[in-house]
Amino acid sequence: MKLNSIIRITVILTLVLLNVGCDQLSKKIVREHIAPNERIEVIKDNLILMKVENTGAAYSFGSDLNPIIKRIVLQILPAIVLIIMLYLSLIKSKYPNEMVFGFCFIIGGGIGNIFDRIVYGSVTDFLYVDLGFFNTEIFNLADVSIVIGSLILLAHTIIDWWQNNHPNKFLES
To answer: Which pLDDT does position 31 carry in this prediction?
Structure first.
């Protein structure tokens, strides 16, 4: 194995583990220090900490499913997808660094939430943002990682498409 491959694999695993670690540490702190449905205003009514145990996925999707179906849909299938993404990120060096970086965030966030579902039977959500014109459901840092990773992939795809279809536009500016 070449040194470049070892460095690449090390960077990928480090990024994934940093995402998982930040997520799990934040959830551990919340589980230990915030009571269920307690409301802590961090920045007025704009950023609020509130612990909620979500037995489903985003927007509590799937929380009422049959337990076997729920395990398949919320644990097994996502785990398979994450394993494939990790395998492709580690083994296939043809992917651009931006895509691998986005994959690392998605994989790390996904692992964090799947870990919660397996170990605790629910995912600990605790952040709520309300900016008046924009507000969120309650979410966690794993969700943030997944969104950031998805936005990185989307941005890379759009920029790549634009460069391939408008090659001279960047030169004209």
So the answer is: 96
